[in-house]
Amino acid sequence: MALYVLRRLVSTIAVMAMVGIFIFLLLRLAPGDPAAIIAGDTATPEMIANIREKLGLNEPLPVQFAHWAHSILSGNLGISIFTGRPVLELISQRLEPTISLAILTMILSVTIGVTFGILAAWRAGGLVDRTLTALATLGFSVPVFVVGFFLIYFFAIRTRWLPVQGYQPIDHGFGPWLVQLILPTMTLALVYVALIARMTRASMLEVLSEDYMRTAAAKGVSSYSMLFHHALKNAGVPILTVIGLSFAYLISGVVITETVFNIPGVGRLVVDAINNRDYPVIQGVLILASGMYVLINLAVDLAYTLIDPRIRY
Amino acid sequence: MSLLSASAEAAPKGRLQLSGLPRLARRHPLVFIGGGLLALLIILALAAPLYASDPLNLYPFKRLQPLSAEMWLGSDNLGRDVFARTAFGARISLLVGLTSAASTVLTGLLVGIIAGYNRRFDSIAMRIMDGLMSIPTILLALALVSLTGAGIGILIVAITITHTPGTARLVRSVVLGVRERPYVEAALCGGARLPKVLWRHILPSTIPALMIQSANLCASAIMTEAGLSFLGVGVPPEIPSWGNMISSSRLYLPIAPWSVFAPGICLAVTVLAVNLLGDGLRDLFDPRATRRR
């Protein structure tokens, strides 16, 4: 087990190093002069030279990378070109809305997705199953922002039940915070509900066809207990995996959802940074988001042993 | 994509050849419905100039008009015909979706086959793919597009780069499964050169998985294009695309919902068609998985 954890950690570090190299090279190897790209179309040659000096672009690539990697590893993500503030500070200011949205989405989609998946597997091939499967396919097919505008139109503009857009920090009160986040959460959760429901169903069906399930039924275990105690526990690993992998989709979804609902989170920060060509900010968010993704999947891998004691490394 | 069963179990040969269209419709309704809908959408997109007016025409006195006999889907905030723009927008979605899927399949196939056969290349390529996979698609695509500015070409390149790792992994896993099969060993022992074996014996076995994958890729590419265009970094605003139509009309949602919903519904229907085709192809090629799913 210790050896496995160690191996997993080493490979995680390797992957992160790879991510670092990509993100570093992205700007440097792009067609054209990175300093000119950052400076924009109206820059004078002096401004471009100034930026080049500031970013250390006059040095050879490996030296640049060493400097860059060193500062990233010591927690310095650089200075935003547009605002002149440290990137880490800009990101941490925007974290609350994004994390609120991500956590609420995960809670909603895991509860509904797993429930739907179990319901569908319970009477596989029946009306409930077919309805849910059709809904899941639909859920995969409607882009996040289309869902968002539909919800805004019907639940905020037409009925005025919920606020159209915006965000309330949680220390202004739990109620307003939650009310503001209902529509964005529903918007973002749709794909995950579909994804998790599908995976749960497939995984449950696999377990339900095992011999020990027939034994359980034969000895008179109630169908509730069969589904939730016997089957769900054994079906947990693939469900957990899909939750980990879907974190990447979650980040992509967050960027778009924040734009639809005008939520001042990290997603808006990136989109604004791209419009301002604020490359250090883009780099910083890319590194943090990828790091989160890698860490979450590491955690998922390590959690397998907790939910399924049969798995030993 | 993660849900895709990457099984190499090829369908019994000859099933498709045996069946005409009606038989396909009965046995694999999803392939029929999804494929038919997609074909219809492609025809409608190609024929757009025949039935729709110029999508760039501005009618400043007819801004935000509701649906009417003259403008079937009303007009947007600049007085442009939403119907015409939606019809022409289909071209962008399908163009980006189909070309990105094709180019991703090619790059994924190339990387995957070589990685499946060459250990040294494999260890390097797969680390690179792991790294690329760890950067969330939209963020990486955003960063790539931001370097050169919005454009359809860079969009296709960005989608291809972000989607290649998954495809390469899929192909590699199929190749690893097939390379030890007796018929491959027999071919090699019989004196066939490696490139020929790859072409004649390995490549065909990747086709079922790749066909399913290309449907998934196409759906994902259409979504990514629309998402990036919606964020304002995809298709340039002067070319009507569903994503940038929604982006430019979003502020007028309360007074002109049609200008947001028309492209939105088309987008959903198109992705649905591609997804149905993908689900259908999975049933067709991997009947075992279907019964379980």
From TrEMBL, chain A:
Membrane topology (UniProt): Multi-pass membrane protein
Main localization of the protein described in the UniProt heading: membrane
Keywords, ordered alphabetically: Cell membrane, Membrane, Transmembrane, Transmembrane helix, Transport
Residues that span the membrane, as ranges: 9-27, 99-122, 134-157, 177-197, 235-261, 281-307
Domain ABC transmembrane type-1: 95-304
Subcellular localization: Cell membrane
Gene3D superfamilies xrefs: MetI-like
Keyword Transport in record: yes
Signal peptide positions on this chain: none
GO biological process: transmembrane transport
Example of a GO cellular component annotation carried by this entry: plasma membrane
Entry's family note: Belongs to the binding-protein-dependent transport system permease family.
PANTHER family the record matches: DIPEPTIDE TRANSPORT SYSTEM PERMEASE PROTEIN DPPB-RELATED
Protein name: Peptide ABC transporter
UniProtKB/TrEMBL annotation, chain B:
Cited InterPro entries: BP-dependent_transpt_permease, MetI-like, MetI-like_sf
Places the protein is found: Cell membrane
GO biological process per UniProt: transmembrane transport
Gene3D superfamilies named among the record's database cross-references: MetI-like
Topology of this chain in the membrane: Multi-pass membrane protein
Organism domain of life: Bacteria
GO cellular component terms attached to this protein's record: plasma membrane
Residue span, ABC transmembrane type-1 domain: 90-278
Record carries keyword Cell wall biogenesis/degradation: no
Regions that span the bilayer: 30-52, 92-117, 138-161, 255-278
Main location: membrane
Alphabetized UniProt keyword annotations: Cell membrane, Membrane, Transmembrane, Transmembrane helix, Transport
Family, as annotated: Belongs to the binding-protein-dependent transport system permease family.
Protein name: Peptide ABC transporter permease
Organism of provenance: Microvirga vignae
